[in-house]
Please model this.
Amino acid sequence: MKRIAVALSKGGVGKTTTAVNLAAGLARSGKKVLLVDVDSQGQASKSLGHEPQVGLAELAAGEVSAEQSLTQARENLWLLAGGRSLAGLKRIITRKDYGSEQTLTEVLQIVDDKFEFVILDTAPGWDALTVNVLFYADNVLSPVSLEVIALQGLMEFVRSLASIQRYHPELALKYVVPTFFDRRVKKSDEILDQLRAFYPSYLCEPIRYNVRLSEAPGYGQTIFEYAPSSTGAQDYQILVAKLLSD
Ligand SMILES: Nc1ncnc2c1ncn2[C@@H]1O[C@H](COP(=O)(O)OP(=O)(O)O)[C@@H](O)[C@H]1O
Ligand SMILES: [Mg+2]
Model:
């Protein structure tokens, strides 16, 4: 089983878009996928057209069974919903005297055994929940929008990751995915060159700017459903293929 955290402290870089379409693409190719929404905004579920009443927080609190906590969103694709109730989970974590960083791992181990991929969508920033996600994950995928500030954000994020890797050495930054790529914008190419220079072994093919990607969540659809021939669908399919070949 692969546990992939989609994470970067900066918001608006395409984390949720990537988590949702990556999870959906892997599920379409026949893999059993669990998408965990670890953001109190709950956007990942909404993007798939679901607003489950229970999810991660209720499972952690012992209010529901493993089976009850999961929502089947598509064939092969299950959701463990986040949303506002995650504030409660955050409180459970911060009140613990020891072992708090393993809280999420203990909870997810109740449900994750039947999946081949667990994809975790994270909130922007760096808080107890994000740290918990990084203690659970073995791979990190960081979407980086092609702006100077996002590149700086990635460097800072890599330093923060190192502080966790000291205690959880299995954790590896495995994929850096450039997002909002626009060939007409010179800066886009320049930043891509810099990413290539800094992170040659992790760099994935860029996801182009594509308005269809921003429209699809409003219809509760993945890019493969909403606009299967769009550049967004093509680019995410390439990312899916890369993950499948690893
Ligand atoms: N490649 C893209 N082209 C156009 N719009 C995009 C692209 N990727 C994401 N978006 C849109 O940009 C906004 C921010 O993306 P999102 O995935 O929510 O970022 P994050 O989860 O990092 O905050 C959303 O409205 C999303 O639909
Ligand atoms: Mg998000």
In short: The pocket of magnesium ion (ligand 2) is lined by residues 15-16, 39, 43 (CB under 6 Å). The two ends are 12 Å apart (CA to CA). The mean pLDDT is 95. DSSP finds twelve helices and seven strands in the chain.
